[in-house]
Amino acid sequence: MIYIALLRGINVGGKNKIDMKQLKQTFEQVGMNDVVTYINTGNIIFSSDSLSKTELARALEGAIYNDFRLQIKVMVRSVDDVRGIIDAIPDTWKNDKNMTSDVMFLWDEIDDESVLENLVIKPDIDTVKYVPGAILWSVDKKNVTKSGKTKIIGSKIYKQVTVRNVNTARKIYELMSDEIVE
């Protein structure tokens, strides 16, 4: 099975620095196969046939702690999980000079549509959609400072998501799909 490990909070603002080549080796040493990293923010595609997503996350968190002495939360999602999220993103959503669109991957504990009730959503500014596994959020760049999205940082929910922009999320899925073909 092809998976993505999404690491929360590495190589951001000079904190929790992890070299991607070393991280790849860490994954391989704990039995992950076909390991590919994508950009420096903790996106690791790999294959494994022996453990559940929860078991994989635990094993990877332990290996990262052993090798880097960092307690990093790891979210593991299958290619099918990611496909469902990517298919739900409107084709017009981008992350460019005019628009900011993000995928907020949800930890299992809060993966339910009711999570939207705890967010500040400004309907005239924000376009927000729940899909199993994620919250999709888009806003015109000119309105970013007025968006409810800025209210998430520091909230209880923020600690239970890991965010990737839609361009990155689409590329991750593309790389995962390439692994299936090879």
Automatic annotation (TrEMBL):
InterPro entries: DUF1697. Pfam families: DUF1697 (PF08002). It comes from the Bacteria. SUPFAM superfamilies: SP0830-like. This is DUF1697 domain-containing protein.
